[in-house]
Write a structure and sequence with these properties.
The protein is an alpha+beta fold. Helices cover about 25% and strands about 20% of the residues. The chain contains one helix and four strands; from the N terminus they run ββββα. The strands form two sheets. A two-stranded antiparallel sheet has the order 1-4. The protein starts with a strand and ends in a 5-residue tail after the last helix.
Length: about 70
């Protein structure tokens, strides 16, 4: 039910294609059960969940296996 995006130093928009890249200096957490358009970032309301999801992403990225 959650979508999480790690903070990024990348640009927020690709100006050549006018495409939003969803990069932000802040973590982004969205409750897809209520916010499928990902308009309300609730990361500050759920720091424990942000920490868990961020740790899991780092674990996956550090893994040598794809499955």
């Amino acid at each position: 039910k959650w979508t999480y995006m790690q903070p990024s130093d990348g640009p927020a928009r690709n100006y050549h294609t006018n495409t939003e890249l969803r990069n932000s200096h802040d973590p982004q957490l969205y409750n897809m059960a209520y916010d499928q358009g990902q308009r309300e970032n609730v990361a500050q309301l759920h720091p424990d969940l942000v920490e868990q999801m961020d740790a899991r992403i780092e674990e996956i990225l550090a893994s040598t296996h794809t499955r």
